[in-house]
Amino acid sequence: MSSVNLAFAKELKAYSEDTALECFNCGTCSAICPLVHDNFPRRMIRYIQVGAKDKILENANDLWRCLHCGLCTHTCPRQADPGEIILGLKRFVVANWRA
Amino acid sequence: MEEKKNKVGVYICYCGGNISDHVDVEEVRNRALKLPDVTVARTNMFMCSDPGQEMIIEDLKSGKIDRVVVASCAPSLHETTFRGAIERAGSNPFIYEHANIREQVSWVHHGDPATDKAAILIASATAKAKHLKPLAPIHVDAKRHATVIGGGIAGIKTALDIAGQGIDVTLIERSPLLGGQLNSLGQLAPYGDHASDILKELIDQVTGHTAITIHTNTKVEAVSGYVGNFSLNLLKKSDPENIPLTLDTGAIVMATGSVSYTPFKGEYGFGQYESVITLPELIRLLKANTSSRSMLEVNGKPIKNMVMIHCVGSRQIPGIHPPKENGTLNEYCSRTCCSAMLNAANQIRETFPETSIYEMYRDIRTYGRGQEELYMQASANKVVFMRYEADEPPEVSKNDDPDYPLQVRIKDGLTFNESLTVPADLVVLATGIEPNDVTNLASQMKLPIGTDRFLLEVHPKLRPVEFPITGIFLAGTCQAPMDSGEACNAAGAAAVKASALLSKGYIELDPFVAEVDTDKCQGHGACVEACIKEGALTLMEVINPDGNPVKQAQVTPAMCLGCGACAAVCPEGAIDINGWALKQYEDMVDAIVSDSVAV
Predict the structure, then answer these.
(1) What mean pLDDT do residues B513-536 have?
(2) In whole angstroms, what is the distance from residue B593 CA to residue B92 CA?
(3) How confident is the model at residue B488 (pLDDT cuts 50, 70, 90)?
(4) What is the model's pLDDT at position B375?
């Protein structure tokens, strides 16, 4: 069980656009993602929404399977820009993985 | 040809195939013609059409028939149509009988059995029809005055709309204040009007109206009488001697409203932790808040993280939610709380951007125009939504973190059913709507109450805002959970119906009521004991033709429900129901069991 980390959204601002809360969890991005299964990238975006920092670090490997084809960003109905969020999370994980 | 004693005309409808696809209508016509009392039997593609009705009118005018049987759909819609046609022919509309050969035959039977049953139902209707006698509607003088019970927005609107039709109104409110639940609301969803502005405008109108008398602090103690002539006993709380006021009125509108659900102690920490409050309390805090800081403050403490829990006291499920002490469970959706929660969340996020909000819902149901937008707006305001299932609700508990006195644990459907813990310094419960308890009034007036404890109208589409008791209507949240706009719609409907009823100064009621045969009545009184409607039947002393005083039953037609309980118990057969006499039933049964029309 993870505790919601309220400060995480702010912490992430240094690495990524602040669009994760635009997402309303429709799953279109996960349905169209050609590479990664199991609710990627929606799961990562949801973890940002609820501030589950530890979950993101635990599942960080998934982030590097993304090739930034752009399909998720193209189909997102809410302009949450999933591709950009994943890129931001990569920066965040690189900065934090040893921390 | 021998002249028949009774002249019944039978008219059989094809219903454009609805009936004729399964019933051989022409065969039924041929069989009907052989019935002893039938002089004319005709068919038509649509009996309810003008040509169909015209056939009836011509046969009546030319004297071929003096009773009418139409075999078509259920009588609920077209009985009035055909009665109207008979009236246009200059005859008494009550010489009419209906045979339902669509819902009761062609929609449920096929082939020869369908044709046989249609013929039998027509034979039975014909047997009844030959005993029909011309009747006159019951004429009741009506007081051109209406009484509205409940001074919330529905009651105020009803009173204003009735008074606008030139009818005097008395508006009765139990509490010292008009306005009801709107007094405790702030900015209303979805357009942001202030409840206080709306109330001020309406209360100014209602208190300034010369045709409206207002009694606040007043309870209705007793109701008696019937449509056009009700009598109410009122008790003013301010009266030290408790002298009841009597009010005579022609119609009554129940606008007795609702209250917000009170959570039990320990329900999501309510009554246990002071940081757990209800939505009405939050709305009061928001109304009173004049702080210009960037964080919502409650009792002087800034709120960093607020959790809002939906469906508290609504959509309760037997076996999951514990019933109240009195055994009740609110299984309905309260309809207004989702929008009210989102509305409050938007206000907070837009006024106090440093206060974060987590909304935990089962389903978001933003009913009505302009309300889905509240959800979109809340999303844009970065409200975080989490979803729980009824059988695994969020748990509110104490937190060791001094910054956040509470924590809320949720198995979040939107986070792949993972368990999350949200630290919180305020938890708001979306408490639902419960009707005010009016069982005493309702039982006096014989008004139906649903299993959900809301008052029940006759039919939501065919007869909305009406009770089965003529002259009594309902409006607003006494009827079902609804928002103030919907309550005003219902109020308008109730006002129009009450005004139309009272506009002429008299009312005509269906004549299907008990009638005493004074030659036969021996004054046993069994009928009076059996009667279920107080005041409909009484034993009176009358002078018989020999000049001696005797007791006899007397009917008050406006009160009689036409149920027939009296006819069933009279040992002399001296009381019967007009239009539904025992002899008619006997002949109907004879017609059904005889093989006069069967193959």
Answers:
(1) 93
(2) 30
(3) very high
(4) 94
Count of A-B CB contacts under 8 Å: 50
Look at B416 and A24 and tell me if their CB atoms are within 8 Å. Answer: no
Q: Which of B382, B414, B423 is closest, CB to CB, to A6?
A: B423
Reported ipTM: 0.90
Which of B307, B382, B415 should be substituted to probe chain A, the one whose Cβ sees the most A Cβ atoms within 10 Å? Answer: B415
Which 3 state secondary structure label does DSSP give B590? helix
Neighbours of B573 (CB within 10 A): 11
Q: Which CATH class is domain A8-98?
A: mainly alpha
Residue A50 has pLDDT above 50, yes or no: yes
Contact A3 B386 (CB under 8 A): no
d(C-alpha B501, C-alpha A49), whole Å = 58
Could you say which residues from 12 to 41 on chain A have a Cβ atom under 8 Å away from some Cβ of chain B?
A: 21-22, 24-25, 39
Q: Is pLDDT at B331 greater than 80 in this prediction? A: yes
| A-contacting residues in B 377-396 (Cβ below 8 Å) | 379-380, 382, 384-386
Q: Which amino acid is at B30?
A: N
CA distance B451 to B464: 18
Q: Domains for chain B: give ranges and CATH numbers.
A: 1-136 (3.40.50), 145-257+436-507 (3.50.50.60), 264-433 (3.50.50.60), 513-577 (3.30.70.3270)
**Taking CB atoms and an 8 Å limit, are B418 and A4 in contact across chains?**
no
Total Cβ atoms within 10 A of residue B599: 9
CB atoms within 10 A of CB B515: 18
Which residues are CB-neighbours of B346 under 8 A, at least 6 positions away?
A: B374, B377, B378, B381, B383
Q: For residues B132 and B9, is the Cβ–Cβ distance under 8 A?
A: no
What angle, 0 to 180 degrees and rounded to 10, lies between the N-to-C axes of helices B112-129 and B25-33? 40
* Burial class of residue B556 in the structure, from the number of CB atoms within 10 Å of its CB (0-12 exposed, 13-18 middle, 19+ buried): middle
Cβ separation A43–B412 shorter than 8 A: no
The reported pTM is 0.83
How do residues B124-159 score in pLDDT, each as one tens digit?
Answer: 999 999 999 999 999 999 999 999 999 999 999 999
Q: Is B39 helix (H, G, I), strand (E, B) or coil?
A: strand
Which of A1, A46, A55 minimises the CB distance to B421?
A: A1
pLDDT tens, position by position, B102-123: 999 999 999 999 999 999 999 9
Contact A47 B358 (CB under 8 A): no
Q: Which of A3, A6, A22 shows the shortest C-beta gap to B356?
A: A6
Residue B541, Cβ neighbours under 10 Å: how many? 9
How is chain A split into domains, by residue range? 8-98
pLDDT single digits (tens) B350-406: 999 999 999 999 999 999 999 999 999 998 898 999 999 999 999 999 999 888 999
Closest CA to B31 of B132, B99, B109, B82: B99
